Amino acid sequence: MEVISFVALAAGLIIGLGAIGACIGIGIMGSKYLESAARQPELMNELQTKMFLLAGLIDAAFIIGTGIALWFATANPFLAQIANLPK
Amino acid sequence: MAAEGTANAPTAGEYIVHHLHHLQTGKQTAVVDFSVLNLDSLFWSIALGVLGCWALWSVARKATSGVPGRFQAAVEMLVELVDGQARGIVHNANSRKLVAPLALTVFVWIFLMNAMDLLPVDLLPVVAGWLGIHYQRVVPTADLSITMALSLGVLITCLVYNVKIKGAGGWVHELFAAPFGDKWFLYPVNFLMQIIEFIAKTVSHGMRLFGNMYAGELIFMLIALMGGAFALTGTGIALFLGHIFAGTVWAIFHILIITLQAFVFMMLTLVYVGQAHDSH
């Protein structure tokens, strides 16, 4: 029981903290992109490509974390380890 | 779910574990085991690679200088996009003859492999089940072996270009003298830094694609489980509606992710090969 509740907490923390980081990162990058596009509209296309590239890089860690957390939440690997422990 | 769900209903954990099992030639015991082949990943990646190359080839064969058809226009836009990126990153017209088509192939191939994620999670495994194949994972990029093989291919390309552009002696000199300077007491530190850089680039390149696709596949499975729970209990229409809603939202978001990850992989390939052309 203890393991289940700890894993639920951990999954929440993994998704939540990852989301905070990724959203702040994307937000800062998006605002900078809009600022620079307003300053130099002729660079918009070039900057857009780079922004999407960086969005892919920033998003990666968060989505990987979400996947791992959801894996823990549904197919909990620690329960199998406990079942295999010698009594 | 439908195939084995009626006979003996698997729990959520069993369903996920079953779906995350590769069709393998043997039992994998260690984390790294080169004697085991993941046949499903190999089959789908090769089939999609052939499909992508065939589609591009058939457009190139029938290309007209007149009014292009829709497909030809789409391929032309893609080629121009990749060519523009390659021009901006790799400043060597001779290397670009190989690197730009390489980047285009990588992009198309990874995009097709990622797009397998958008098929319903149970469609192809159930069809394979009818043919007597009990394990099937249809997204090759959600297999670490495939993504690490891709990033190792990029690493080998980088090493080849390092030697080709700088010469074997020049490259060895750079390995020992590059980040901090050409002093004998800095050689071990420089060499260590270079090796760490190569390893970190390769591992993160492969892991990023794998992680995104694996997580996406897992979330699709969880959404499928939501619909499965509805079918098994027969109560809770909310679960069924939630299944449809969540599946739609995630599939639309995933269209962005699969394109973005294929693009990121292509751009990083170009950046790494471009770095091999910079001499210090």
Automatic annotation (TrEMBL), chain A:
Organism annotation: Piscinibacter sakaiensis (Ideonella sakaiensis)
Any one of the GO CC terms: proton-transporting two-sector ATPase complex, proton-transporting domain
Role description: F(1)F(0) ATP synthase produces ATP from ADP in the presence of a proton or sodium gradient. F-type ATPases consist of two structural domains, F(1) containing the extramembraneous catalytic core and F(0) containing the membrane proton channel, linked together by a central stalk and a peripheral stalk. During catalysis, ATP synthesis in the catalytic domain of F(1) is coupled via a rotary mechanism of the central stalk subunits to proton translocation. Key component of the F(0) channel; it plays a direct role in translocation across the membrane. A homomeric c-ring of between 10-14 subunits forms the central stalk rotor element with the F(1) delta and epsilon subunits.
Membrane-spanning ranges: 6-30, 51-73
UniProt entry keywords in alphabetical sequence: ATP synthesis, Cell membrane, CF(0), Hydrogen ion transport, Hydrolase, Ion transport, Lipid-binding, Membrane, Transmembrane, Transmembrane helix, Transport
InterPro entries: ATP_synth_csu_bac/chlpt, ATP_synth_F0_csu, ATP_synth_F0_csu_DDCD_BS, ATP_synth_F0_csu_sf, ATPase_proteolipid_c-like_dom, F/V-ATP_Csub_sf
Location of this chain's protein in the cell: Cell membrane
Site for Reversibly protonated during proton transport, residues: 59
Family stated for the protein in its record: Belongs to the ATPase C chain family.
NCBIfam families tied to this protein: ATP_synt_c (TIGR01260), PRK06876.1 (NF005363)
The keyword Endoplasmic reticulum is assigned to this record: no
Name of the coding gene: atpE
Membrane topology of this protein: Multi-pass membrane protein
The name this protein goes by in its record: ATP synthase subunit c
